[in-house]
Each structure stands twice: as structure tokens, then as C-alpha cells.
Design goal:
- Helix 2 packs across helix 3 and helix 2 packs across helix 4.
- The chain has 166 residues and is mainly α.
- It is built from nine helices and no strands.
Length: 166
């Protein structure tokens, strides 16, 4: 980075090539196998390019870089929160029956909820919709949606406390 800031174009090109892999691994850890990973990585590298002048060459590069991509990834998630959620398409078909050795995962926990509560939790807590938006999507009142979310969270808490799903 020091050489790149000094005007060495080849050093800057190599830096971007190396940082692409680092940023990709970091973002994949956060987003999983989301199709949005590439977009987020590109935004991280664009931000690096726009803000490279703020790097203090007297300080370590890694902390500066990881702070930059961490903040950029958080911003990206906030902007794309509805698109970033990936749930199994067969959520309604999942069984709540415990199987020995199964890890506790979100899909299994959600499968144990009543369907109306599951919809409310998936839309508001995982999908990022407000209760008003989720209510419009499901054709219910905002009050009914808030009630479903509250009861769904209570049911989840009960399931997890009693370990009925593990």
C-alpha cells in the first residue's frame, strides 16, 4: 500500500488482486453463499480505492483495511437486508421431529413454529420488513402482525428453553 500511495501502479494492481481474495473470504463468512457476495466485495474494493488517501503509512495496513471492509459490509447488509436473507424454499415442508445428531439450525427451529407465527418471524426478524410492511404482504392489520410476532417470539423462546426441538 505504501508503494501504491507513492504512485506505483503495478504495486496498486497487485494489492487489489490480493485484497480481492481477502475481502471475498471475509464477506463470505458474513453473507454465506448469498449471490450478493460479489457485489459487496466490489463495493469494499471501490471504497478502498476512494479512501486510500486516508491510510496512514506509519500505521499497520491490516487493521485499517479490515475496519474499512467491516463497515462497508455492515452498510451493504443494511441496504440489502431484504435481499440478503436466504431461507430454504421447503420451509413449510420441514419437520419438527428431532433427529439424533442434528444440529440446531434456524430452519429446524422455524419449522416447529405455528405457520402464522413462522411467517411473521421470517418477514420481520429475518427479512427485515417492518410490521406494517409484513402486515400488508399478508393482508392482516398491523396490530395482528405485531401480535403474531410477539407470540411467535414467545413460542420460540419456549421451544428453546424446553429444548423440545433439539
Amino acid at each position: 500500500m505504501k508503494r501504491a500511495l507513492g504512485g506505483d501502479a503495478e504495486a496498486y494492481r497487485l494489492l487489489l488482486v490480493e485484497l480481492y481474495d481477502v475481502a471475498d473470504a471475509y464477506v463470505r463468512r458474513i453473507l454465506g453463499s448469498s449471490p450478493l457476495v460479489e457485489d459487496c466485495v466490489q463495493e469494499c474494493l471501490e471504497t478502498l480505492h476512494r479512501n486510500r488517501h486516508s491510510y496512514d503509512s506509519q500505521r499497520p495496513f491490516r487493521p485499517w483495511f479490515f475496519t474499512l471492509i467491516r463497515h462497508k459490509t455492515i452498510d451493504f447488509l443494511r441496504r440489502n437486508r431484504r435481499r440478503a436473507v436466504t431461507l430454504p424454499e421447503n420451509l413449510a415442508e420441514l419437520s419438527c421431529d428431532p433427529r439424533p445428531g442434528d444440529a440446531l439450525d434456524a430452519a429446524h427451529v422455524l419449522a416447529c413454529l405455528d405457520p402464522i407465527y413462522r411467517q411473521a418471524i421470517v418477514l420481520t426478524k429475518l427479512g427485515g420488513y417492518t410490521t406494517a410492511e409484513a402486515a400488508r404482504l399478508l393482508g392482516v392489520s398491523s396490530v395482528a402482525m405485531r401480535t403474531r410476532v410477539h407470540r411467535g417470539l414467545r413460542q420460540l423462546r419456549h421451544l428453546l428453553e424446553t429444548e423440545a426441538i433439539t
